[in-house]
TrEMBL record:
Residues binding ATP: 64-71
Record-stated family: Belongs to the LpxK family.
GO terms for MF: lipid-A 4'-kinase activity
Pathway: Glycolipid biosynthesis; lipid IV(A) biosynthesis; lipid IV(A) from (3R)-3-hydroxytetradecanoyl-[acyl-carrier-protein] and UDP-N-acetyl-alpha-D-glucosamine: step 6/6
Enzyme class: transferase
Name of this chain's protein: Tetraacyldisaccharide 4'-kinase
Length: 346
């Protein structure tokens, strides 16, 4: 197992860590207070200094440090814009190279602009002919103005929750007052958990449109994208996502409770080395080796393929399933495009 400190922190945020974790939570209270104050001051300073973008901007963001499904939701929005005859671009800070590679593999003909200066990135996209910019992870980026602010909340994470460093939240629940639309997502959590989070959002922000979205394995492929049969027990999961436990839950949900599942988590956005891959192959032995699409884009690199030594890899492809609020989401996109004099999403 390779998640180390990051894995312990995730468990700690969820109440784990035993006596050490309890003491650490108490000791981190002042740090959380300092972080909360810093966020409030930053929002006050930047909130009134946004720069009008060159083209309409749809921001897909969240309140936590990851794991809500931003990247596949960006993909869904890009697909809807393309269906409406609109030329979109994806804009990102560029922190996760794997996510940029995913966007480029999903939409080879869509510009992907990565730059910590999101204003400059949107301007480049506009100069290249894009008509709408879809911002991946933009809710906390206050400098760039946007026309539609979408915030995702994961049903797997308690809402509301502690702020960094005591918890995974970058902002408190009051930040949702800035959102134009909230989507509660779920991967391994039951539908009831998503409904609980949605009810809390409604209680705090009655005027914010709300939707719920589940991610389900929509199929399996190999590293080249060819369809394959679902993996059979035993299963060995090697993944570098923010909340790897959700991947285990998804696989177990498809394969059945009797499936023997081993989880080998790496830190989020981890850059695999040939040594990592050889270790995983040796540890998996005869088990079916499972990764996410986010992992697969890295494993396709020639050096890492060589380390696999011909080993079959099952890539889990997630499919978004709207459970409520689909009309609210498409309606918000339609209004944005109509106001900009563009098409209308399907």
């Amino acid at each position: 197992m390779a998640d180390g400190l990051s894995g312990w922190v995730r468990r700690w945020w969820r109440g784990g860590g035993g006596v050490v974790g309890a003491v650490a939570r108490w000791a981190a209270l002042p740090l959380e207070g300092v972080f909360r104050l810093a966020v409030a001051l930053r929002n006050r300073r930047l909130g009134a200094r946004s720069v009008a973008p060159a083209i309409p901007v749809v921001s897909i963001g969240n309140l936590t440090v990851g794991g809500t499904g931003k990247t596949p939701v960006v993909r869904w929005v890009v697909d809807r814009l393309r269906e409406a005859g609109v030329r979109p671009a994806v804009v990102s800070r560029g922190y996760g190279r794997d996510e940029l590679a995913l966007h480029r593999s999903w939409h080879p003909d869509v510009a992907v602009e990565a730059d910590p200066d999101r204003v400059a990135a949107v301007n480049r996209a506009a100069e290249g002919g894009a008509q709408v910019a879809v911002l991946d992870d933009g809710f906390q980026h206050r400098r760039l103005g946007r026309h539609l602010d979408v915030v995702l909340l994961a049903a797997e994470t308690a809402f509301p929750g502690a702020l960094l460093p005591r918890g995974p939240y970058r902002e408190g629940p009051g930040a949702l007052a800035r959102a134009d639309l909230v989507i509660v997502t779920r991967k391994s959590a039951p539908r009831e958990a998503a409904e609980t989070v949605a009810a809390e959002v409604r209680r705090r922000h009655r005027g914010v449109p709300l939707a719920t979205l589940a991610f389900r394995p929509g199929g399996w492929c190999d590293l080249d994208g060819a369809g394959v049969e679902p993996p059979r027990s035993p299963v060995y999961i090697a993944t570098s996502v923010a909340w790897p436990e959700t991947v285990r839950g998804l696989v177990a949900g498809v394969a059945g409770p009797a499936t023997e599942v081993t989880l080998d988590p790496f830190p989020d956005h981890h850059e695999f080395t040939p040594g990592d891959v050889r270790r995983v192959v040796a540890a998996a032995r005869e088990a079916a080796l499972v990764v996410t699409e986010k992992d697969a884009v890295k494993l396709r690199e020639p050096e890492l393929r060589g380390a696999l030594d011909g080993r079959m890899v099952h890539v889990m492809v997630l499919e978004p399933v709207w459970e409520s609020g689909h009309d609210e989401v498409t309606g918000a996109l339609s209004r944005l495009l109509r106001d900009a004099g563009l098409g209308s999403p399907a």
